[in-house]
From TrEMBL:
The lineage of its organism: Eukaryota, Metazoa, Chordata, Craniata, Vertebrata. Plays an important role in galactose metabolism. Pathway: Carbohydrate metabolism; galactose metabolism. The keyword Nucleotidyltransferase applies. It catalyses: alpha-D-galactose 1-phosphate + UDP-alpha-D-glucose = alpha-D-glucose 1-phosphate + UDP-alpha-D-galactose. This is Galactose-1-phosphate uridylyltransferase. Residues 1-22 are annotated as: Disordered. Keywords: Carbohydrate metabolism, Galactose metabolism, Iron, Metal-binding, Nucleotidyltransferase, Transferase, Zinc. One of its GO terms (molecular function) is UDP-glucose:hexose-1-phosphate uridylyltransferase activity. The active site is at H177. GO terms for cellular component: cytoplasm.
Amino acid sequence: MEPSPAGAEERGGRFRASEHQHARYNPLRDDWVLVSAHRVKRPWQGQLEKPPPEDVPRWDPDNPLCPGATRANGEVNPQYEGTFVFPNDFPALQPDAPEPDDSDHPLFQAAPARGVCKVMCFHPWSDLTLPLMSLPEIRAVVDAWAELATELGASYPWVQIFENKGAMMGCSNPHPHCQVWASSFLPNEARLEDRTQRQHLSQHGVPMLLEYAEQEARRKERLVVENADWLVVVPYWATWPYQTLLLPRRHVCRLQDLSDSERDNLASIMQRLLIKYDNLFEVSFPYSMGWHGAPTGPYLEEDCRHWQLHAHYYPPLLRSATVRKFMVGYEMLAQAQRDLTPEQAAERLRSLPEVHYKKRAEEV
């Protein structure tokens, strides 16, 4: 018998995703990610991050997000007791910016960009984060998100709700808050997801992420947490180590379309996910997250059935509270690459307790 050619065993059915590199397709972005799970075994001698401070004061008069504090523009915050929304003092988008001049060449194009930017504080206390807040407090955040999406979406095509948590993700203030940017245009990610979801509905007759949620709920291998209305998975095509996708079980296009029970269960599943995140390395887990739903403004009168509401969570930590995943080199110049399989990440998150490590310490 002649020896098998190199790689024949893998091609013959012995492939193991946890051992052998492979590429996975992301239908939502129409691109690919390289999965190289064996790389996580390599020793790390690179940069170590500083864990977030544990001694954040509950109230600080010099913190511009605290109740009663004076912000950079001289405005004094009210003594708020729940959520608090105010215009960003340093907005990236303004409603009355002049339009750029017409381009004299197709390689030098500019377009108008107008909008508004708001900041939303989740809670008056600076030493709290969402996983440590109560369910009614998180539900109030969900309601405030929906109100802003409705208010700004009445005139703007895109309303981007996003939270940068932790200094590692560029957050300069530990106070629990998010930002909401409404724009006169569809940003790149929105345009891309609009196209891919529209194509999927046209070709398959079902919204992409509704079908995907049904598949993941049945397969279970990438499922992290679930309840009657929602599920959280590490997506099959995840790029970041512990990236997750939060999906409703029914077809719903926008945050403001959620029922009371769906909002209650959203608060619950967010709390469960974020507790698991914190418990993973027993640290206030950094991430960037954001909601994607059907465009608004003029799109409210159009058929947007191809859209399915969802939230992306992009956390950078890989091995520990001090070792992160860097998106550089090959990732910037070729395509995204990850160091453990989505199934491994989901299993690890799924197995974590749903009581926050700080509360467990208090009980001891």
